[in-house]
Amino acid sequence: MYRMRNAPSNSLRKEPLFTALDQTDFVILGALQNNARLSNKELAAKAGLAPSSCLVRFRKLVEAKALRGFYADVDLGALGINLQAIISVRLVKHSRARFRSLYSYTHRLPEVLQVFQVSGKNDLLLHVAVRDVGHLRDLIVDGLAARPEVAQCESSVIFSQFRQTRLPRYSGPVRR
């Protein structure tokens, strides 16, 4: 169903080559995105498949990395984590070594939920969850701005967020 093509050694250029996903694949992906705890029997019923056929499709989607993981939606406030923010980070000077060092470092910070490498004046956007404003300040001042790779940090507090639970659909075959 899915095949990787040979790619250059630069990992940023490795692009999987997928065959088109059909309507049933989208039904399976959408159902799991809304509720990852569905049993195979429930998933098969939603997709209009026999459980055995559904399991085969599910395994192919996992193997092709169209399904990357299954997560719980945790209420961070219940854990005493009451503030989320986006921190924009700009490198002092661009080099692969500096970028890799900082990128690796951000993955080890427990406050970091997501890391985005972006275009524009900033190099990284970090989605962080912290106890309070003091914790955010300490993370920025002591954890990020003090790093030799970092030229500038700017934070934006998240007041609310929305997570889309349906998959985008575009006309034409879906290829990646």
Describe the structure in your own words.
The chain is an alpha+beta fold and 176 residues long. It folds into two domains: 2-63, Winged helix-like DNA-binding domain superfamily/Winged helix DNA-binding domain (Arc Repressor Mutant, subunit A); 76-157, Alpha-Beta Plaits (2-Layer Sandwich), CATH 3.30.70.920. 33% of the residues lie in helices and 20% in strands. It contains five helices and six strands, in the order E-E-H-H-H-E-H-E-E-H-E. The strands form two sheets. A four-stranded antiparallel sheet has the order 4-5-3-6. The protein has a two-stranded antiparallel sheet with strand order 1-2. The longest helix has 13 residues, at 51-63. It is elongated. The model is unreliable at 1-8 (pLDDT under 50).
| CATH architecture tag of the largest domain | 2-Layer Sandwich
- Kindly state the percentage of residues in helix: 25-40%
Under CATH, the topology of the largest domain can be stated as Alpha-Beta Plaits
CATH homologous superfamily annotation of the largest domain:
Lrp/AsnC effector binding domain/regulation of amino acid metabolism (RAM) domain
Structural class: alpha+beta
Report the sheet-strand fraction. Answer: 15-25%
Query: What's the order of the H and E elements?
Result: EEHHHEHEEHE
Instruction: Report the CATH C-level class of the largest domain.
Output: Alpha Beta
Question: Using only CA atoms, what is the Rg?
Answer: 20 Å
Outline the low-pLDDT stretches.
Answer: 1-8
Tally of strands: 6
Q: Tell me the number of helical segments per DSSP (H or I, 4 or more residues long).
A: 5
Chain-averaged pLDDT: 87
- Looking at the structure, what is the overall shape? elongated
Please state how the strands of the largest beta sheet are arranged side by side.
Answer: 4-5-3-6
Sheet of most strands: 4 strands, antiparallel
Distance between the termini: 13 Å
Tally of discrete structural domains:
2
